[in-house]
From TrEMBL, chain A:
InterPro entries: Arc1-like_N, EEF1E1, Glutathione-S-Trfase_C-like, Glutathione-S-Trfase_C_sf
Upper taxonomic lineage: Eukaryota, Metazoa, Ecdysozoa, Arthropoda, Hexapoda
Protein name stated in the entry: Eukaryotic translation elongation factor 1 epsilon-1
UniProtKB keywords: Elongation factor, Protein biosynthesis
Start and end residues of each GST C-terminal domain: 21-170
Xref: PROSITE patterns: GST_CTER (PS50405)
Any one GO molecular function term: translation elongation factor activity
Keyword Protein biosynthesis attached: yes
From TrEMBL, chain B:
Keyword Ligase found: yes
Main location: cytoplasm
Enzyme class: ligase
Pfam families: Anticodon_3, GST_N_5, tRNA-synt_1g, WHEP-TRS
Keywords: Aminoacyl-tRNA synthetase, ATP-binding, Ligase, Nucleotide-binding, Protein biosynthesis, RNA-binding
Catalysed transformations (reactions): tRNA(Met) + L-methionine + ATP = L-methionyl-tRNA(Met) + AMP + diphosphate
Keyword Chloroplast on entry: no
Originating gene: LOC108556988
Similarity annotation: Belongs to the class-I aminoacyl-tRNA synthetase family.
Compositional bias segments (type: Low complexity): 934-948
Domain WHEP-TRS: 827-883, 887-943, 947-1003, 1010-1066
Name this polypeptide is given: Methionine--tRNA ligase, cytoplasmic
Length: 170, 1068
């Protein structure tokens, strides 16, 4: 399974201003976390262990939102992070009517997906970015937050070039 | 009422129903097909639609929604088991049973998940130890179809009695019974197929563990551990013996034979660092590697000596061309010898062998019909009374679209295209600047169009092994279509054409120089044809190293010549071309005295190994790179000294001190095997990249191995273990033994790069010469130095390069501008104006979209002007220091603003060319600020002293941050910036301390007279620290002593006004 888990966890923790703790891969390549004597096993478990320590409110409000949040995290883990390219169109479709994945505010799901998708988005051509226009909009929105972006570069969503190809939409 | 949509017999659907019952939620179940069009994205089943029409498509999210977990314990065990269910259990069940996956890794995951669960249930149910929670429901539901299927249950669950018990017990629960009555679960196969189809798990999801291993820097797979263990059981006896060097070296049929050439430098240029790394040094490193692999290796190099330039130079110096060549040949030879370039033969083109070969080759080609004569217009400079060689004519580039004014007669530096000297616009003689006249004479042409099909066919096959730039350049040549190429000239200094009527002409470099490789080989051995015209059964691989400007010679001209001769000549299979090396972001220039030339390197006092290391570290592979003094010092101090040198020295010193210079017994544990496996991985990468002559990468793998070694030593702490029980002592012995063996491996790997240091280290290790061997087919780490091996006397391999030294070098080789500041100093305003004008010009050019080559020279002029201005400005403040000190605040503001600008430019993703000038301005400002600050503190010492405390605090905090980041194992990229901040803070602190001390010497009790005393104290303290550290004291013990030491050093620095030399001098 993807070894990027650990770096993604790290990035999320950094964004949340929470100590990431000691992160390793254990049996079945399940991420393990230990911090101040406490250990956590499992990717989502580790993410959820960060949440209460963060001053940011990223966990969703209602029980419905919490369930939605959980499902996107699980989805990121089980599906997207394995082969991000395969899920771009699905995510793009979902984002047609949304600004964020859960409710109307930034949650840890957006944060995690930003990190998981960064490498893919960075390498998309302008035409592909056009194809996944909703995803691109969401991603561009995410990356405007310097704390979230951390050391990542801004991915360019220049539309000048596209305007020449498909003027109607720009 | 929430609706649960699920396909039939899906255990995840069952999970939702049971959860809803536990949570006392009313619900409705709708059975649909997975292919149903109404399933919302991402089209997985089951999903829950809530009252507010929100879709929840994760069954665990839905289950928690129905039956939330109320209490969170310290390890959050409910969440942990939910993770377990979705990530390990359900996926592997669906794939192995539902998808009949035969992938062993997935089967392994299933069985280890079941074992994990069984171990947990042995301690008792439920999973969080208190109440039945959603995780119990999830895990149980996932397993229920398996448990319910008699045959499958026997096959999979029999070894796990605790799971079986728990499953049976759970089935008794009322809610579960009700759910099972409502929702039918069929046999295991059907159910897990339903799960698989519903969830759309794909086999991609579980990659094999080896893939993980290569991707993850710190995880080693069991296979890797196993092979590391097996390898370390072997000794030198299991390795092939290095071949004895027999001269002459000749190829052997059935073995790997490697012929290596280095582009022939032109004799009367003293080579600069760029020339050296481009061909000779690269070829040498590769040859040494090739010899390590026991391949029959011949490295040929030499100087190219014919041509007009030599003639001119001879006239200048009043010597014959041959005398000039002899003189410069010695210079070249000495430089390469100093750089430890181990040519098997270093020859020259002015030999009878060359004459014979070139003439023979010409006659062969002429007989084969690949020669033609054409009348050629040549440029004659009447003032100089001679025909002008291509390089001696300059004029406007004839290519449309390129308006470069100073194109040379053979090639335009503006657009890079080849030029015929007679086509230049407004040609002029380079020497006297008068316009030459055209004269016509008959010349020989190599008929490349006739050879093109042969060449094309060969290139298709051969170019696989070339560097990318070589491929691109050659392809563009072929694409434009080959034209006949003139190979003779009306000159005197060269190989004469052996045909009546043409005997007053000589061959041109295009034809003559590459054949030098062959003639030099023939000078080396009379059996040269074994290398260049091998027998059928002998395989010769020819590697040619050069900078990219030489590619057409080696990819078109030389192969075309050899192919046309049709005598079975060895053709190049690997053209290894580098890009250019710049000097401190500018070009090397002999005339302006900019840059380091071969002869200078020796005078710097820096050992040739360090030069070799750094040049290879920045080898321009893939793109241009630049040489920088500061970087050289940094790489030397951080990589060679603190990483590599530190590791091998510690390994040896421990062996000497604690084990009587004898390699101790080794009983390997998993920890030891892990470091060996990690090093093996680096070793494999090292071999793989060197085989492709990716020399720059190879050096990084060496450093990675010593980094692993350092970490290993740091985590095992043998010096601590030695003070404990006998078992611990034995453990320390193992660690030291492994480290010594890794050091021996490092010495071998260093051999191509740093031959002197490698030999020195081998001598310190007392390692037998048989250790100088690599097995490229299966690189592994064997026990090079077994228990009982006596090592020699350890000594530091590298020494520190001080910043002061760097500054001195920078000034020395930075060009001539600094020599005449007085002429410039008055001109600040004039220069500023010139800069502005030039800047405008550049901007206009850039924005007009003309190619880089057009505006690049203008930029160079601009930068030049700026440098002059800087020099001028520097001269001014000296006369008016007061004006500067007042400006600190303004400057700070300017720096900040400029910094903002640069950041925003960079982050906006514009190309480097756009923001580079802004960065230059920023750096400029910073320098000014620094200068101003240096002047300022004297007037405001009090503020400085206040700052010391706050800075100290900041340094401490930042230090904490860095340490925690590093220890958390995040990638370097993450903590590197923090380290930069830390170093910055430390610098500031140092500066602050300095200013405080100078401002109030009495309070610190340090007067200038005390310098000697401080120095004494420092020496004593340093000795104490070293003894503590090497004696194996815990960090907490020596750390305060180090603080005292650093304190003392700071005081000394303050007292002498010299910067502190830092704590880590090489361990002497």
């Amino acid at each position: 399974m993807s070894s990027n888990y650990l770096s993604h966890l790290n990035q999320v923790a950094t964004f949340m201003k929470v100590p990431p703790g000691k992160l390793t891969l254990g049996i079945n390549n399940v991420p393990m976390h230990s911090h101040e004597g406490k250990t956590h096993r499992g990717f989502l478990n580790i993410l959820y262990s960060y949440l209460p320590h963060s001053t940011k409110n990223l966990a969703g409000e209602t029980s419905e939102e919490k369930a939605e949040l959980y499902q996107w995290l699980e989805y990121s883990l089980i599906y997207v992070s394995q082969s991000p390219l395969h899920y771009l169109s699905e995510i793009n479709e979902f984002l047609t009517t949304r600004t964020y994945f859960v409710a109307q505010t930034l949650t840890i799901a957006d944060v995690l997906l930003y990190y998981i998708l960064y490498n893919v988005m960075e390498n998309l051509t302008y035409l592909e970015k056009e194809k996944y226009i909703n995803l691109s909009r969401w991603f561009d929105n995410m990356q405007q937050n310097p704390e979230l972006r951390q050391k990542n570069k801004l991915v360019d969503f220049n539309t000048n070039y596209l305007a020449a190809i498909s003027p109607a939409r720009h | 009422m929430p609706v649960i949509y699920t396909n039939e017999s899906n255990p995840a659907g069952l999970k939702l129903i049971i959860s809803a019952k536990f949570g006392s939620v009313n619900y409705q179940v709708k059975i649909i097909e997975s292919a149903d069009k109404t399933v919302p994205a991402p089209r997985v089943l089951p999903y829950v639609e809530t009252d507010r029409e929100t879709v929840i498509f994760s069954s665990n999210a839905g289950a928690q929604y129905f039956y939330p977990n109320k209490e969170v314990d310290s390890t959050n065990s409910v969440q942990q088991w939910l993770d377990f269910e979705v990530y390990e259990l359900a996926q592997s069940l669906a794939l192995v049973i539902g998808g009949s996956s035969k992938v062993q890794k997935i089967k392994d995951i299933l069985s280890s998940s079941l074992k994990l669960l069984n171990d947990k249930l042995k301690e008792g149910a439920p999973l969080n130890g208190k109440t039945i929670e959603v995780c119990d429901i999830a895990v149980w539901s996932a397993l229920y179809p398996l448990h319910n299927d008699k045959k499958m249950s026997k096959e999979y669950l029999e070894p796990y009695p605790d799971i079986l018990n728990w499953m049976t017990h759970f089935t008794e629960n009322t809610f579960v019974k009700e759910a099972l009555a409502e929702f039918k679960i069929l046999d295991a196969l059907t159910s897990y197929q339903a799960l698989l189809i519903g969830a759309k798990y794909t086999a991609v999801n579980i990659k094999s563990s080896t893939e993980v291993a290569t991707a993850n820097p710190d995880v080693v797979s069991p296979e890797e551990l196993k092979s590391a263990e097996e390898a370390f059981k072997k000794t030198l006896n299991n390795l092939p013996k290095p071949k004895k060097e027999v001269h002459p070296i000749l190829p052997v049929a059935g073995e790997k034979n490697v012929l290596i050439t280095s582009a022939l430098p032109y004799v009367n240029n003293v080579p600069h660092l760029g020339n050296i790394i481009g061909c000779v040094l690269s070829s040498d490193v590769f040859a040494r590697f090739s010899r390590l692999c026991n391949w029959n290796t011949l490295l040929i190099g030499g100087t190219d000596e014919y041509g007009t330039a030599t003639e001119t130079k001879a006239l200048e110096e009043g010597l014959t061309p041959q005398q000039i060549c002899d003189k410069y040949f010695e210079i070249h030879n000495n430089i390469y010898r100093w750089f430890n370039i181990g040519f098997d033969y270093f020859g020259r083109t002015t030999t009878p062998e060359q004459t014979r070969l070139v003439q023979d080759m010409f006659i062969t080609l002429n007989n084969n019909g690949f020669m033609q004569t054409q009348p050629v217009e040549q440029l004659l400079c009447e003032k100089c009374n001679r025909y002008l060689a291509d390089r001696f004519v300059e004029g406007g580039c004839p290519h449309p679209g390129c308006n470069y004014e100073d194109a040379r007669g053979d090639q335009c530096d503006g657009c890079g295209k080849l030029v015929n000297s007679t086509e230049l616009k407004n040609p002029r003689c380079k020497v006297c600047r008068t316009a030459p006249v055209k004269r016509t004479s008959k010349q020989f042409f190599l008929d490349l169009p006739k050879l093109e099909p042969l060449l094309h066919h060969w290139m298709e096959k051969s170019s696989q092994g070339w560097t990318n730039n070589a491929k691109v350049i050659s392809k563009s040549w072929m694409k434009e279509g080959l034209k006949p190429r003139c190979i003779t000239r009306d000159l005197k200094w060269g190989v004469p054409v052996p045909l009546d009527g043409y005997r007053d002409k000589v061959f041109y470099v295009w034809f003559d120089a590459p054949l030098g490789y062959v003639s030099m080989t023939s000078k080396y051995t009379k059996d040269w044809e074994k290398w260049w015209r091998p027998a059928k059964e002998t395989d010769i691989t020819l590697f040619q190293f050069m900078a990219k400007d030489n590619v057409p010679f080696h990819s078109v001209m030389f192969p075309a010549t050899l192919l046309g001769a049709n005598k079975g000549y060895t053709l190049v299979s690997h053209i290894m071309a580098t890009e250019y090396l710049n000097y401190e972001d500018g070009k090397f220039s002999k005339s302006r005295g900019v840059g380091v030339f071969g002869t200078d390197a020796q005078e710097t006092g820096i050992p040739s190994d360090v030069w070799r290391f750094y040049l290879l570290y920045v080898r321009p592979e893939g793109q241009d790179s630049s040489f920088s003094w500061v970087d050289l010092a940094t790489k030397n101090n951080s990589e060679l000294l603190n990483n590599l040198g530190n590791f091998v020295n510690r390994a040896l010193v421990f062996t000497e001190k604690f084990f009587g210079s004898t390699v101790p017994a080794m009983n390997l544990t998993e920890e030891d095997l892990t470091v060996l496996a990690l090093c093996t991985r680096e070793l494999k990468s090292y071999v793989a990249s060197l085989e492709k002559a990716k020399l720059r990468d190879g050096i990084r793998y060496i450093l990675a191995i010593s980094k692993h070694g350092n970490q290993y030593m740091q985590s095992t702490q043998p010096w601590v273990l030695l003070k404990r029980t006998d078992d611990d002592k034995q453990r320390a012995g193992t660690v030291v033994g492994v480290c010594v063996n890794i050091a021996c491996l490092l010495a071998t790997l260093m051999l191509p790069y740093m031959p002197d240091s490698s030999r020195a280290l081998k001598a310190q290790l007392n390692a037998p010469p048989e250790t100088n061997i690599l097995t490229p087919d299966n690189p592994e780490i064997v026990m090079f130095l077994p228990e009982g091996h006596k090592i020699g006397k350890p000594a530091p391999l590298f020494s520190k390069i001080e910043p002061a030294q760097v500054e001195e070098m920078k000034k020395k080789f930075g060009g001539q501008q600094s020599d005449k500041p007085s002429a410039v100093s008055g001109d600040v305003s004039a220069l500023e104006k010139a800069i502005q004008e030039q800047g405008d010009k550049v901007r206009v050019l850039k924005s007009s979209g003309s190619p880089k080559t057009t505006w690049q020279p203008e930029v160079a002029i601009l930068l030049d002007l700026k440098k002059k201005l800087e020099a001028a400005q520097k001269a001014v403040p000296a006369s008016a220091p007061t004006s500067v000190s007042g400006d600190v605040a303004t400057l700070e503001k300017a720096v900040q603003e400029q910094g903002e600008k640069v950041r925003s430019l960079k982050s906006s993703g514009v190309p480097k060319a756009t923001w580079q000038p802004e960065v230059t301005i920023l750096l400029d400002l910073k320098k000014k600020l620094e200068a101003a600050q240096k002047a300022a503190p004297a007037s405001a010492p009090s503020s400085g002293s206040d700052d010391v405390a706050s800075l100290e605090k900041a340094v401490q905090e930042q230090g904490e941050k860095v340490r925690s980041l590093k220890s958390s194992g995040v990638p370097k990229a993450t903590w590197q910036p923090e380290v930069t901040i830390l170093l910055d803070l430390k610098k500031k602190l140092e500066a602050a301390q300095k200013s405080t001390v100078t401002a109030s010497p009495s309070t610190n009790g340090v007067a200038i007279a005390d310098v000697n005393e401080i120095q004494c104290a420092i020496d004593k303290q340093a000795l104490l620290v070293r003894q503590l550290k090497e004696g194996g004291a815990a960090k907490s013990e020596w750390s305060p002593q180090v603080t005292i030491l650093l304190d003392l050093k700071a005081k000394l620095a303050a007292a002498t006004g010299q910067p502190s030399t830092g704590g880590k001098k090489s361990k002497k």
